[in-house]
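Researcher: I'd like a candidate sequence for this fold, 166 residues long. If you have to choose between options at a position, lean toward the conservative one.
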């Protein structure tokens, strides 16, 4: 619509005073043909369908009706385009909201994963410490058991008297 508003309609319809009357009619016809092509390109102008300065008022009325219907159609198309643009903007806003929500869920999941990983690392560290402590206790227990065995064996050596041969 902006292009239509910017068209130099005054220039298209203006007629210079230096131009003779026959040339003036030719120029006006050319300008009107241009206007008609802009408004309704699907219709091919026929010599009788394009009004000239000598045309009847009915032909001019038909031209005005065609211009009005073209303008109405342009407004309808603009309205549809505007509605579609609004729908696209709404859709983009929903997509942005969805992306923001998804990013928040990702951040929350990553934080939860870090927390779980930290707890798992702490549990593994505690388990490793318990294993080391248990291994140390087992080593000490085996050492003491060996001492007790050695003590019993040395103190009760008489329990296994040497065999004398007869």
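Model: Candidate sequence:
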């Amino acid at each position: 619509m902006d292009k239509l508003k910017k068209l130099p309609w005054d220039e298209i319809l203006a007629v210079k005073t230096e131009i003779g009357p026959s040339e003036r009619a030719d120029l006006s016809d050319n300008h009107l043909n241009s206007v008609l092509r802009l408004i309704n390109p699907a219709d091919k102008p026929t010599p009788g369908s394009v009004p000239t300065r000598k045309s009847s008022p009915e032909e001019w009325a038909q031209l005005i009706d065609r211009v009005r219907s073209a303008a109405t159609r342009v407004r309808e198309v603009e309205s549809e385009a505007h509605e579609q643009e609004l729908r696209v903007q709404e859709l983009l806003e929903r997509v942005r909201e969805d992306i923001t929500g998804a990013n928040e869920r990702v951040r929350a999941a990553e934080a939860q994963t870090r927390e779980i990983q930290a707890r798992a690392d702490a549990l593994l560290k505690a388990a490793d410490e318990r294993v080391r402590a248990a291994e140390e206790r087992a080593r000490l227990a085996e050492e003491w058991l060996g001492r007790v065995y050695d003590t019993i064996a040395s103190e009760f050596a008489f329990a296994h008297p040497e065999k004398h041969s007869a």
